[in-house]
Specification:
Length: about 120
């Protein structure tokens, strides 16, 4: 099962969904979703930078705030797909990623999140 939520403003949303059991009887449930941002263009943190940008095969993460102690990174495609997750390192190989817009998420040891967007080009 896959759910898609189209949100035009940040906030809390109740999502009602259903699946059918093997006999075809629908089963309903509800979950709460919190939307922090409504588009990748809304996200950007000047303390985290991807260089070069656009990127071809690898990039360097530059952290401009000495108080940030990175622990792990995640990379998401523009449609929200989690395409990479690893322990933090400042050199990232993305040679197997498709051309497009991506979001870099850096997580520190205290669970704080920092974001930077980047473009993979030819």
């Amino acid at each position: 099962m896959m759910l898609h939520l189209l949100a035009y403003t940040p906030g809390d949303y109740a999502v009602v969904y259903y699946v059918e059991d093997i006999t075809g009887i629908p089963l309903y449930d509800t979950c709460m979703v919190h939307v922090w941002s409504v588009g990748i263009e809304d996200i950007g943190d000047t303390r985290i930078q991807v260089l070069p940008n656009p990127v071809r095969d690898h990039f360097t993460i530059t952290i401009k705030d000495e108080g940030i102690r990175p622990k792990e990174i995640r990379i998401y495609s523009a449609d929200g797909e989690d395409v990479m997750k690893m322990n933090y390192r400042d050199q990232i190989d993305i040679s197997d990623m498709n051309i497009g817009l991506y979001l870099l998420e850096v997580v520190d040891g205290e669970g704080r999140f920092y974001y930077s967007k980047f473009v993979v080009s030819e």
